[in-house]
Amino acid sequence: MAFGAYSSSACQTCGCSETSCESCQTVADCSNCASCCCSTPHQSWRHVRIGNGIRIEYLSSAWMTIEVLGSIGVGLFAGSFALLAFGGDSLIELISGLAVLSGLRRDSSRVGSVLDSKRTEQFTSLLLFALIPVIGLGAVYSYLTGLKPEGSPLGIVIAIGAVIVMPYLYVQKKRIGRETRSLALSMDAIESVTCLFMATALLGGLLAEYFLGLWWADYLATGVILAFVAREAVESHHELHQEESAAHVEKWRCTCRANH
After folding, report:
1. Residue 186, pLDDT above cutoff 60
2. Is 29 part of a structural domain of the chain?
3. Which domain holds residue 51?
4. Residue 7 neighbours by CB under 8 Å, 6+ apart
């Protein structure tokens, strides 16, 4: 068989192979398993892979819950805006992850609409933009008034945990998202790797603060984390507009096909 040609097991309608959706030519028409045009073995494979994605999202949600409660609680106790910023972003990622989980469950059960998911995406995008001035202005005020955050061993443990867990979540979400052509999982993988970068910045700031007494490192880490949050917010806003544009284009194409 020539390189690039479809195998005999490939779907004649969309081009999916028996164990992959990477070559799918009609992604917009396959919002969930109910609209799948492929063979029964492919649908069974996809059902299993979506199930794996659901389990990864459950694990991700459990860890993000620990991050939220731990980071915000310790941040309030120690006066650490870096921990508060990290916890606030983790809360937003938790909400977004629950929306991804809901979408995967609809895909797996072969029912559902994307309307609730889109509303959640809009809500989380708004929260990202709101987090920047809330944490940023609070950090500036505290710095100008001379507040010196305290070193936090528990905060260091949370940051180390995130640095360990996030690479695994990123690899798994990216792999399953690519194989099943799940944009939600692929985007959630990007959020996981962004969380890894933020956790690294947080860990550096907390270590410098605890072992070297550099209290201003907490504010430096806060600035780095908020920079990542700002990037997430802008990318999320662009993605929403791109999805809306793609939906309008697809609707126009459907209207043209119907008229002809």
Report:
1. yes
2. no
3. 42-255
4. 1, 17, 18
Q: What is the pLDDT of residue 217?
A: 93
Judge whether 208 lies within some domain.
yes
How many helices and strands (H and E) does the chain possess? 6, 0
How much is the CA Rg of the chain, to the nearest whole Å? 22
Structure tokens at 241: 């507009």
Please give the biggest Cα pair distance in the chain: 73
Structure token digits, residue 131:
């987090």
Q: Identify the residue with better confidence: 247 or 102.
A: 102
Domain count, the chain: 1
Cα 237 from Cα 218, distance rounded (Å): 28
181 by DSSP, 3-state: which?
Answer: coil
Helix (H) or strand (E) holding 255: helix 216-259
**Tokens describing residue 97:** 């992850």
3 lies in some domain: no
Measured at the CA of 8, the angle between CA 7 and CA 12, to 5 degrees, comes to 90
Predicted TM-score (pTM) above 0.90:
no
